[in-house]
């Protein structure tokens, strides 16, 4: 049965990252499978209110205070009234939160359970147990996940981590990996400069990505092998270390630092190289190595977190996070490339078979089916679950949830459900039909006035179909990232004519 | 130690007590929980290919399948050190030494305040002890750092300059906080000495550099003595103030270096010094307040003998978990 799903996370476009693209891709595939999906996130600068993305994916940018790296201020109750309004308006029955660092997601799960809705949660990263911030983080995770229907993790290692962190029954946790839009990461053998062995690095320049290791190994590799050059993309506080290293060892002609790279440019950088190097110190899944292998690069990576689960052994060379071992691994990779022992160009087709968002959506749908069968526990039972969180914490959490329940009753009384207008759903089927008709017309025109041979025409057709399915969504995403506003989305608003109204309505609601 | 210890019964949520083997509601065996949880999904697994911890192959298992190898890489308490009682007792002397030295400083102030002790005597004895201590330190440092020779003259010059400045400033220091009421001064002094005690650098064996927490604690103590200096009666001479201030510098900045030196020298000397300070503090306070002496003795006994036992006892509740999800520590050769 089709569900009305609300994805909630602090992290969504125009912010860039793994969670963001996961949310977008998963939502698109679920819409294609006939579900209604909306995304709730916090406002990004002037991006406030409701927006439509491809295929009528509706995004609520809720005004909120951002405190640290795009995570919102945890207020526990502050988000409840507007959240309730949205889920009633959109007739939501499943709330799906993403990323433990997002306080908005955590709050949404709590409120959803108070309102008697199904809730599930996807964990995208690993958290340790040792330092103060992760202890706090784990306690909050334990709180919100005490009463949850199902949890999804992106790798088996992440599942072990989540089960320990939140004291969950491991059967309640499914592993559904991330995926990749393979058509966006096609290899390009012509882009490689045959005079060099090019090693590509693309990551944020932060400690967790192991930039210290990178700084240590680059001079050693450059010294021993004069044909090697590096292309390094990404920005962050550790970039200065790399620049210093380049100055110190006079490697300006061999180490190219590109600075911040936008997501759609990544493919063009990857295809320039033969080897991809990842030096992360912790990683739940690691999209970077998957994208690189898909572009036909041999991957060298540190063996941390979920990395060993992602790629088959012939695509990847592992090293422990130690300088010597990494140097050896890179040397072996260079040798393999020089002697042509591997043909990374074939990786693309293999990866295409391994990871696809359609598969992810199918498996996520199974989780939804499963939680749909579950009974929602009564308040007393839920309080018992929260009580088990700890000697002191359990009591505090019980109070928090009791107040949450009272607040919900109060909201029910002061803003009755009948007074909240139901938003008309986006007519996806009709939209697809119109798109197909337009396409056919286009094709006919092409047939009539072009002298192209049939081969070319076939290609055209392929592209169009891809577009329709949203496989070439990358263009849309770029638009979102851009400063100019989104042509596509504006078009949707105009063509459906209710978008504008919707926006206005939402704004007036939030003001009052 | 790969067995996950379950704290709750999965059937009815009963919380297991320490060492309890069965759930008292449903009688479920605690050790069997893991098998129950894993086996319920893994029925007919004989026919299937074994499950592998990989994401890129499509496996004939549900997404929420829990394999036998689940949490196999979990390690518990790998970094835990087991402590020996007497070693911890010996290590605790650094704390009791510091507490004793604070006590002695306060006693000296009270003697000055009551005009039992005169300023010049304090200055003379302080200087003599400082010079003796300096000779010790000089010998130890010139062994490790041969380039030290030429710095001696600079140190002497610094000492003379500092002492002259202190003498010159003592009339100002004497009246600096005169207008503040007694209660405020006493309360602030207590707080500052507590800060000195909390932030003192107990751990390091470093005898040359001073780290940030060390400097914070020294500053707190010096400030406390400035406050105390303003409490001397107006008719008394300035030598009391300069005596107390120079003593404070010697006692809180230089003496800890000497204590570290003694500790590195031999544990016998260290214990002897601890005893000496302890007896000195007790005797000095004997004339002031017997109650304080008793509290002081009890506190030192508690820190030296009860706290180490407490630490070792509480170690059994230590539960550290490590696994592949931990952030790796990069190993880099320093050049």
Can you walk me through this structure?
The complex is a heterodimer of chains A (512) and B (335). In chain A, strand 5 (66-68) and strand 6 (71-72) form a beta hairpin. An eight-stranded mixed beta sheet of chain A has the order 3-4-2-1-7-8-9-10, sandwiched between helices. A six-stranded parallel beta sheet of chain A has the order 13-12-11-14-15-16, sandwiched between helices. The longest helix of chain A is centred in the last third of the chain and has 22 residues, at 393-414. Chain A has helices at residues 18-32, 80-89, 103-114, 132-146, 156-166, 211-224, 239-248, 266-270, 287-294, 307-310, 323-338, 347-354, 357-373, 379-387, 393-414, 428-449, 454-469, 474-481, 487-496, 498-511; strands spanning 4-8, 36-42, 49-53, 57-62, 66-68, 71-72, 94-98, 118-123, 150-153, 173-175, 197-202, 228-233, 255-259, 275-278, 298-302, 316-319. Chain A is built from 20 helices and 16 strands. Chain A is globular and about 75 Å long. With 512 residues, chain A is an alpha/beta fold. Chain A folds into two domains: 4-179 and 358-419, Glycogen Phosphorylase B (Rossmann fold), CATH 3.40.50.2000; 182-354, Glycogen Phosphorylase B (Rossmann fold, 3-Layer(aba) Sandwich), CATH 3.40.50. Chain B has 335 residues and is an all-alpha fold. Chain B folds into two domains: 1-47, no CATH class; 87-317, no CATH class. Chain B is 59% helix and 1% strand. Chain B contains ten helices and two strands, in the order H-E-H-H-H-H-H-H-H-H-H-E. A two-stranded antiparallel sheet of chain B has the order 1-2. The chains are: A alpha/beta (512), B mainly alpha (335). Chains A and B meet through helix 5, strand 10, helix 6, helix 10 and helix 13 of A and loops of B. Chain B: It is a multi-pass membrane protein. Chain B: Belongs to the PIGC family. Chain B: It is found in: Membrane. Chain B: This is Phosphatidylinositol N-acetylglucosaminyltransferase. Chain B: Its main location: membrane.
């Amino acid at each position: 049965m089709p569900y009305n799903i609300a994805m909630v996370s602090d992290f969504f476009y125009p912010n860039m990252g793994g969670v963001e693209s996961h949310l977008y891709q998963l939502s698109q595939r679920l819409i294609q499978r006939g579900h209604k999906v909306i995304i709730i996130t916090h406002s990004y600068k002037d991006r406030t209110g409701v927006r439509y993305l491809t295929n009528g994916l509706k995004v609520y940018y809720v005004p909120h205070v951002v405190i640290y790296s795009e995570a919102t201020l945890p207020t526990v109750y502050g988000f409840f009234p507007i959240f309730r309004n949205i889920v009633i308006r959109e007739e939501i029955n499943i709330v799906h939160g993403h990323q433990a660092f997002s306080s908005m997601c955590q709050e949404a799960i709590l409120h959803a359970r108070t309102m008697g809705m199904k809730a599930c949660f996807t964990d995208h990263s690993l958290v340790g147990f040792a330092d103060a911030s992760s202890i706090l983080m784990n306690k909050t995770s334990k709180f919100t996940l005490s009463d949850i229907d199902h949890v999804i993790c992106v790798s088996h290692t992440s599942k072990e981590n989540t089960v320990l962190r939140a004291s969950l029954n491991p059967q309640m946790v499914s592993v559904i990996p991330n995926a990749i839009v393979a058509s966006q990461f096609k290899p390009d053998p012509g882009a490689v400069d045959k005079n060099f062995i090019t090693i590509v690095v693309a990551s944020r320049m932060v400690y967790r990505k192991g930039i210290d290791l990178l700084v240590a190994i680059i001079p050693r590799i450059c010294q021993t092998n004069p044909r090697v050059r590096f292309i390094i993309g990404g920005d962050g506080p550790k970039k200065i270390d790399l620049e210093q290293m380049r100055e110190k060892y006079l490697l300006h002609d061999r180490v190219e630092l590109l600075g911040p790279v936008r997501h759609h440019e990544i493919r063009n950088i990857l295809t320039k190289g033969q080897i991809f190097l990842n030096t992360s110190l912790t990683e739940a899944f690691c999209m970077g190595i998957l994208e690189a292998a898909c572009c036909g690069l041999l991957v060298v990576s540190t063996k941390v977190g979920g990395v060993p689960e992602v790629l088959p052994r012939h695509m990847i060379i592992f090293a422990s996070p130690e300088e010597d071992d990494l140097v050896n691994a890179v040397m072996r990779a260079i040798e393999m490339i020089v002697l042509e022992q591997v043909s990374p160009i074939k990786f693309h087709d293999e990866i295409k078979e391994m990871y696809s968002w359609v598969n992810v959506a199918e498996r996520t749908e199974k989780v939804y089916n499963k939680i749909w069968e579950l009974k929602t526990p009564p308040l007393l039972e839920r309080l018992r679950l929260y009580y088990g969180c700890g000697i002191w914490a359990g009591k505090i959490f019980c109070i928090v949830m009791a107040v949450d329940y009272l607040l919900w009753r109060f909201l029910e009384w002061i803003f009755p459900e009948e007074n909240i207008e139901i938003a008309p759903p986006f007519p996806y089927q009709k939209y697809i039909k119109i798109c197909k008709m337009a396409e056919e017309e286009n094709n006919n025109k092409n047939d009539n006035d072009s002298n192209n041979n049939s081969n070319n025409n076939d290609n055209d057709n392929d592209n169009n179909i891809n577009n329709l399915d949203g496989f070439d969504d990358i263009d849309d995403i770029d638009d979102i990232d851009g400063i100019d506003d989104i042509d596509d989305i504006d078009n949707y608003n105009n063509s459906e004519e209710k978008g504008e109204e919707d926006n206005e309505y939402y704004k007036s609601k939030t003001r009052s | 130690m790969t067995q996950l210890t379950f704290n709750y019964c999965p059937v009815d949520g009963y919380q297991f007590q320490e060492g309890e083997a069965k759930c008292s509601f449903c009688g479920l065996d605690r050790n069997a929980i893991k098998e129950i949880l894993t086996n319920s999904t893994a029925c007919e697994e004989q026919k299937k290919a074994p499950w592998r911890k990989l994401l890129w192959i499509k496996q004939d298992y549900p997404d929420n399948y829990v394999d036998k190898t689940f949490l196999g890489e979990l390690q518990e308490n790998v970094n835990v050190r087991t402590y020996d009682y007497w070693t911890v007792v010996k290590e605790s002397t650094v704390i009791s030494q510091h507490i004793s030295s604070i006590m002695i400083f306060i006693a000296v102030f009270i003697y000055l305040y009551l005009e039992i002790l005169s300023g010049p005597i304090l200055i003379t004895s302080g200087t003599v002890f400082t010079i003796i201590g300096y000779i010790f330190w000089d010998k130890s440092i010139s062994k490790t750092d041969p380039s030290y020779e030429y710095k001696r003259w600079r140190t002497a010059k610094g000492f003379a300059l500092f002492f002259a400045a202190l003498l010159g400033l003592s009339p100002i220091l004497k009246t600096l906080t005169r207008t503040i009421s007694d209660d405020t001064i006493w309360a602030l002094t207590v707080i500052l000495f507590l800060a000195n005690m909390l932030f003192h650098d107990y751990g390091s064996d470093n005898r040359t550099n001073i780290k940030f927490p060390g400097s914070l604690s020294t500053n707190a103590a010096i400030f406390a003595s400035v406050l105390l200096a303003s409490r001397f009666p107006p008719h008394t001479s300035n030598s009391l103030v300069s005596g107390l201030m120079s003593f404070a510098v010697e006692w809180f900045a230089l003496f800890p270096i000497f204590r570290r030196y003694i500790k590195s020298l031999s544990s016998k000397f260290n214990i002897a010094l601890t005893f000496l300070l302890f007896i000195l503090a007790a005797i000095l306070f004997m004339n002031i307040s017997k109650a304080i002496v008793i509290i002081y003795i009890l506190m030192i006994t508690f820190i030296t003998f009860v706290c180490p036992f407490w630490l070792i006892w509480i170690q059994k509740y230590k539960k550290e978990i490590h696994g592949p999800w931990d952030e790796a520590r990069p190993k880099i050769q320093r050049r």
